[in-house]
Write a structure and sequence with these properties.
The complex is a heterodimer of chains A (about 130) and B (about 130).
Chain A lengths: L11 E8 L3 H11 L6 E3 L4 E7 L5 E7 L9 E5 L3 H10 L3 E8 L3 E7 L5 E7 L6
Chain B lengths: L11 E8 L3 H12 L5 E6 L2 E7 L5 E7 L9 E5 L3 H10 L3 E7 L3 E7 L5 E7 L5
Parallel strand pairs in B: 1-4, 5-8
Antiparallel strand pairs in B: 1-5, 2-3, 3-4, 6-7, 7-8
Classes of the chains: A alpha+beta (about 130), B alpha+beta (about 130).
Chain lengths: ~130, ~130
């Protein structure tokens, strides 16, 4: 079945995440230094960090996990209408789907790498919001 | 004068840039997989090759092949700020390192490195304060 052109075109960028080495140090920098106010903080679990909702509705997140070493990062979460359809097109065009598609209580997402080795996510919020 | 620490200087994300190893291959991927249409192109310039795609939400996604910088995992955010100079002062006072300050006809952008080693930009569009 041919994938309909345009269906998986990104509508915007919902979120961008940076990996960090030291949670307290990074939070001081972004909160006290740049004025971000946390909208979510993860102090326990596999992923430690914080998220900051911006006035535009976009989310900036910082975090660390023992499951992956720190790397310069910045994985964007592209908002798409249909994550499965978009994931299929990623594969058809030379990218790789490395995790998912998966469903969480608030969204659908699939983590991918492009042809250059960059990481990004296909993302669809269940409430339909973008950005 | 002390700057108000409660003032949020970041108003949004204007753009995010990924680096490419093969510029044309990267373009084919993003334009083929997502139907992205270039809104800005600068190929073969002294500094490298660049292409940008404006998304419906107003955010820009860009791909760059830099002549003076080898590919590395990247994803540098261009944070929208109303006052680049004030934002630079706050960021460097908090531990960031200023790497480059560029004033273009379309925007002002200051590239910095945060305390964790991540690259980010303080950005102000001249046509719009977003």
């Amino acid at each position: 079945m041919t994938t309909a052109k345009g269906v998986s075109a990104p509508r915007g960028i919902d979120a961008v995440y940076y990996m960090i080495k030291d949670v307290a140090r990074a939070r001081r920098f972004y909160e006290e230094g740049l004025g971000f106010e946390p909208s979510f903080v993860a102090e326990t679990g596999d992923w430690l960090g914080a998220e900051y909702e911006l006035p535009t509705g976009q989310t900036f997140g910082i975090g660390k996990t023992e499951q992956a070493p720190w790397t310069p990062s910045g994985g964007m979460m592209l908002s798409v209408d249909d994550v499965r359809d978009a994931a299929a097109r990623v594969s058809e065009n030379g990218g790789q789907v490395v995790m998912g598609p998966m469903e969480t209580p608030v969204c659908f997402m699939a983590w991918c790498t492009d042809t250059e080795g960059n990481t990004f996510s296909l993302h669809h919020r269940k409430d339909g919001s973008v950005g | 004068m002390a700057m108000a620490q409660t003032t949020a200087v970041i108003t949004g994300i204007d753009a995010i840039y990924y680096l490419a190893k093969d510029f044309n291959r990267a373009r084919r991927f993003y334009e083929g997989a997502f139907d992205l249409k270039p809104t800005f192109e600068m190929a073969g310039d002294e500094g490298g090759s660049f292409v940008e795609y404006d998304l419906p939400d107003g955010t820009t996604f860009g791909i760059a092949l830099l002549k003076d910088s080898p590919w590395h995992m990247n994803g540098s955010i261009e944070f929208a700020v109303p006052d680049v100079d004030a934002a630079i002062l706050r960021a460097t006072a908090a531990g960031a390192t200023l790497n480059e300050d560029v004033d273009l006809p379309s925007c002002r952008m200051a590239w910095l490195q945060d305390t964790e080693g991540n690259s980010f930009c303080l950005h102000r569009r001249k046509a719009s304060a977003s």
